Amino acid sequence: MGEAYRWNWLIEWGTPSSAHMYAVKKHIFQGRSEFQEIQVLEYEDLGKALVLDGKTQSAIIDEFVYHEALVHPAMLLHGSPEKVLILGGGEGATAREVLRFKAVKRVVMVDIDPVVIEVAKKYLPEWHQGSFDDPRLELIIGDGLKYVMEEGETFDVIIADLADPIEAGPAYKLYVKEFYEAVKKRLRPGGVFVTQATSPTLMPYTFGVIYNTIRSVFAHASYYMVYVKSFDSMWGFVLASDDKDPEELNRVNIDERLAQLVEGENRFYDSTGHRWMFSIPKHIRTEVEGVKEIATMDNPVFTPA
Amino acid sequence: MGEAYRWNWLIEWGTPSSAHMYAVKKHIFQGRSEFQEIQVLEYEDLGKALVLDGKTQSAIIDEFVYHEALVHPAMLLHGSPEKVLILGGGEGATAREVLRFKAVKRVVMVDIDPVVIEVAKKYLPEWHQGSFDDPRLELIIGDGLKYVMEEGETFDVIIADLADPIEAGPAYKLYVKEFYEAVKKRLRPGGVFVTQATSPTLMPYTFGVIYNTIRSVFAHASYYMVYVKSFDSMWGFVLASDDKDPEELNRVNIDERLAQLVEGENRFYDSTGHRWMFSIPKHIRTEVEGVKEIATMDNPVFTPA
Amino acid sequence: MGEAYRWNWLIEWGTPSSAHMYAVKKHIFQGRSEFQEIQVLEYEDLGKALVLDGKTQSAIIDEFVYHEALVHPAMLLHGSPEKVLILGGGEGATAREVLRFKAVKRVVMVDIDPVVIEVAKKYLPEWHQGSFDDPRLELIIGDGLKYVMEEGETFDVIIADLADPIEAGPAYKLYVKEFYEAVKKRLRPGGVFVTQATSPTLMPYTFGVIYNTIRSVFAHASYYMVYVKSFDSMWGFVLASDDKDPEELNRVNIDERLAQLVEGENRFYDSTGHRWMFSIPKHIRTEVEGVKEIATMDNPVFTPA
Amino acid sequence: MGEAYRWNWLIEWGTPSSAHMYAVKKHIFQGRSEFQEIQVLEYEDLGKALVLDGKTQSAIIDEFVYHEALVHPAMLLHGSPEKVLILGGGEGATAREVLRFKAVKRVVMVDIDPVVIEVAKKYLPEWHQGSFDDPRLELIIGDGLKYVMEEGETFDVIIADLADPIEAGPAYKLYVKEFYEAVKKRLRPGGVFVTQATSPTLMPYTFGVIYNTIRSVFAHASYYMVYVKSFDSMWGFVLASDDKDPEELNRVNIDERLAQLVEGENRFYDSTGHRWMFSIPKHIRTEVEGVKEIATMDNPVFTPA
């Protein structure tokens, strides 16, 4: 057989009836923490990637799309974010984007898995780019849910960069009403919250419940989505605030605001990228906005089995 | 093992190093024409689909996204299309969308593979919805390249809904400069051309060459893209004309124009869908517009092996 | 990609952690009976095959290995079998081999699934070779367990050619002590019983329990095994009788006895094939004979999940 | 999805149309030498295994079957082997079996890939069990072909434990007439040669050519085969000598001879195992012995692509 026949594969299951197969060039790291199997792989097509429990978290060829999409709209909506809380975000790339904002004075990052952090520090320098050493960053190894539920410091922007709400894992408790209410209490006046919210195309029901739940807690909530090649699908986010309406962003000059607020230049997010992310096609709106359920601690939402 | 273990699979190879696996519930039809292996499958997750040489052409859950995206912008840009030429389009869904335009008096459809047409008529009624019986449609079984290269009838809109330019197949000759020049001669004054142009995310070089080649032939050319779930990727198109600038469409009220020109209501394409398709993010613009090559009969472009 | 990239695959799961992938050239038949999904496939490498619930039952390239192995030792051990009962055996190839024995006057075949029988008659002529039309054969569509449990006709040889004892299916009841006791009552003096018994290499525990259970019911019991390429593994059988010791066969000239008793020539089974099948290597003996459990209706044995 | 969904897989291609999928629990080592990709994997089902260029060489659950099958018949046939040459055999398990023979005074092992040797020493102690430290063993890193072609020391037994003759690799030159003639010159009077010879069931033509070629060089040559679960297929060997006929072994008491000559007890090979290996069923004999071609340097034989 020709050399095209690859033998090392990561099969990423979307459902029991569909999967993506990725040929693996190099197994850079494999380990198991208390929470999950952690791998750093070099894919033939996507390059280096972090894979948790068989799910590609981000790949070097386009991690910037996901991370700019997650961080920038919330930061711009706030306008002058000084204190930012990141829940999850182990690769350090969410922190990297936050720290690019000139106004930022303090970032607290709470991640539950110290092994992911160690792996990111050692194997993913292209992701964190030294963020873990930035004096403005305080890293707390701990449970984001517990951290938020307690009384404590308040923030201008809170960013949830968490694993999907799978039934087997603990993350689903960070996609319920009680959690969002606690998040709200941790926001300063004018505060903004954003969360990754699974895929509006692969799992529109799950995404719709998350959106609906957040909408029931905050005065304003919008969702948006981006195509991430290394996920081979659209990925979605929900942006919410009691004081600021995300719709405002559609009326400002994104390019100008970025130039004012951010060091360096974005690779993805700009005026056009913003318009793209916030233009949700009709058939997806219909599916997402047709969902009426809300997730609570007693009745959470999961990704489909 | 639980019942979740599927055994019938279609593995759709993107490259030798990545593939999508789809579980097949039912093999509805399988045959081989002079040109290709033709299958109608019922996927577990995507429902009924047409598959040519192992590539999913369209699936029932979202064929409307692809077909509205292909047809509507070109027809709107023209404004009052009476005569339309479709090259390819065997499923009959491109014809279906064209025939929804009130102004249309005559549609010529040229498809090379009579087996695909027979299969579509019999197994894909949800696609064609009777288009093959519309008295305005003339169906020609023949080579689209030859048809266009000859002198003959001219059209208001020409739509190329062809297989990808794979190295093994004949379709690559319909993605070269000489072909586009012939197409141009077949357009009436004010005429508009649109073609599917492969994926700007999966194969940006191929897509870029097609765009570049069309741009070298027509006074105006724009590209746009849409996420097609059943392809698990973005899909792209190029829209061109000597007389009309596609940019105009960004300044008109798409919803209003659709209401005037089209019977029934679209499921995907509207003002928001238009904005989404024509907002190309920076990192994709950079890749596509960085391509400088042009495809000719002697030096064609292929999809990557 | 080269033409070597196959897209239609049957993935046959052995365990959740191992599987065989077979490229499918042609889907000849697919249907679902009350009992199972039934497919007739043409594999690229193995040719035409019957596949039930995703498990290859037999392929044209070597079905003779399995069917001669199942039928001939039991028939030779008996010596002059006139009346034979086949449980299962839907392809008709077990009947074919039985009917080649000159002494045979009557064969009763009891199969539960009429769809399998119809499919075999229509699509598998190379298997049955007209057996279904032999006047000596009586075909009963019905439950083999019920048939055997009732009082009735007795036989010289009883052959169980049944699906594996999977937890989801009904066949596991034909691998328990109560069933074997009922089989024994249906044997004439000098009668012999043989059953397929799963794979002694893939599932030595299941195989060992079946052997052990049969040994607890009959005075003599031996197991033997054969490599079946289209299963990509060894396959095993248990041969038992109250009156005749299978070990006797190791002392007779198999080639001579076949020449006396059978019409035509075997493709696999002869003196050498016999010696091969009954020479069980030490490490397999150790595994199989280390099993102490017995299967009963209340405590059956299953293939591993 | 349940936890049964595995994501790390080794897909071992037999042909472009069939493959085995093995779930990988742990990637213990991965590296690339001058000659090949070398991996030590822990399979979910087969345990620890050495994998070269995507082909499982041996797995902990049954490496003893392959290695006893390769070594013992040749050593018994000789009767009192003092000097043994091993070509290949990087895992150290072939040396382990050779060193168990009481008569052995000197073993020369020639392996081309020093990385395989280092990996075996470090990660495969269950295979070599200290053989590399045995004072009777001399390890030469070098080209086995060149070593044999030169004049030099002669041996009682020569064992070829080499990679398959793939078209891309260098090993095919060790499966041709010129090589076997050189081997013969390196045998002492009464000397015996044995080689792994690919699979008589997966690639009967390749196997048949190797057998035929060896038969054309030596006065006596026999082939035999064994089922190796971790290859999911039968594996074959050719045993040859000018002075001793392998058929003699079928007339001696293997168990007694092993007791005399070997330290410790075998796990697989004994009288029954011998009978099993040397009883080649008719349909396989027909295929293998139907081959008439011979492999030479100018016209070598390869494994099928």
Features:
homotetramer, 305 residues, alpha/beta, Spermidine Synthase, Chain: A, domain 2, Rossmann fold, 2 domains, 7-stranded mixed β-sheet, 5-stranded antiparallel β-sheet
Describe the fold and architecture.
The structure is a homotetramer of 305-residue chains. Helices cover 29% and strands 30% of the residues of chain A. Chain A contains ten helices and twelve strands. By secondary structure, the first copy, chain A, is an alpha/beta fold. The two termini of chain A are 36 Å apart. Chain A has two domains: 9-59, Spermidine synthase, tetramerisation domain (Spermidine Synthase, Chain: A, domain 2, Roll), CATH 2.30.140.10; 63-289, Vaccinia Virus protein VP39 (Rossmann fold), CATH 3.40.50. In chain A, the strands form two sheets. The first copy, chain A, has a seven-stranded mixed sheet with strand order 8-7-6-9-10-12-11, sandwiched between helices. The first copy, chain A, has a five-stranded antiparallel sheet with strand order 1-2-3-4-5.
